[in-house]
Design goal:
Two copies of one chain form a homodimer.
Chain A (H helix, E strand, L loop, with lengths): L2 H8 L3 H9 L6 E2 L6 E2 L2 H15 L4 H12 L5 H35 L9 H7 L1
Chain B binds a DNA duplex (30 and 30 nucleotides) through helix 2.
DNA sequence: CCTAAACTCTCCCCCAATAGGAGGGTAAAG
DNA sequence: CTTTACCCTCCTATTGGGGGAGAGTTTAGG
């Protein structure tokens, strides 16, 4: 099938699917007459797989790794779990960072009257 | 002073300070003889201000707004508080999203034996 | 059968916020 | 006076795409 249908079936945009072909995440056959990309059912399954992994916050590089594990019928599940745990750790790091920022900003906002007066503890803090 | 010292004093890299000049976040005077940027004490204060706001996760566009409030002695503190609360809300949204991802990934990881066997619930979930 | 719309191709620019480096001019220290 | 340290502009890359031009292809309708 052509790229438009593959994109529809995988829930991705044509732009994105083309990008994945460019960087060899999912490489379809190519019609040498027209230059049109030709996607198989298996290609679409891979696109769906990558789409889902992306929604789980895996980077494209990580998707590439997951995809090669997905294709390897003999993969040890240890490998997949390792990637997943690393991703969880990364997410937790990010969350900690955000929690700290939120706490600091909330403390500042609380001290700020938020009215017409120019006096502002937030600006003062940023000025130090 | 020249850009190197301004960068040191503000805790930013020369590259970053130059970029901020390019996009008019902090615009120093320019020596027309040499083309060297010439930073005042006030410019350095602005760079420090932006650096701190960046560490609080404000985007450069938001920094631009904060900076104009910083420079406006008559600003209503309401404006600053509004930006800060919006930033807090944005951070909380991101945290929720990450919490959901973490929960889903953790549930998957827990079901995965993580050994030599190819059977892997994580890959299976991503394949659906 | 022919035309027009829908689709596809490549190529280039754009976003945020920097980092790295080439190639060339300037300043300050020995 | 030379070396080193610094500064300049311009180009490239990063991540994960989006937008659009200009050209070729396919498909549907009349």
């Amino acid at each position: 099938m052509k790229i438009g249908k593959a994109a529809d079936l995988s829930g991705l945009t044509v732009k994105t699917v083309r990008h994945y072909a460019d960087i060899k995440i999912v490489s379809p056959a190519v019609n040498s007459q027209t230059g049109y990309r030709d996607y198989s059912e298996a290609d679409v399954a891979k696109l769906q797989f990558v789409g889902k992994a992306r929604r789980f916050n895996f980077s494209l590089e990580e998707c590439r790794e997951l995809l090669s594990l997905y294709e390897d019928q003999a993969r040890p599940s240890r490998e997949v779990k390792k990637l997943t745990l690393a991703k969880i750790a990364h997410i937790e790091e990010k969350m900690q960072e955000l929690a700290s920022l939120r706490q600091q900003l909330a403390a500042l906002a609380e001290q700020c009257s938020g009215d017409d007066r120019p006096n502002c503890p937030i600006i003062e803090e940023l000025s130090n």
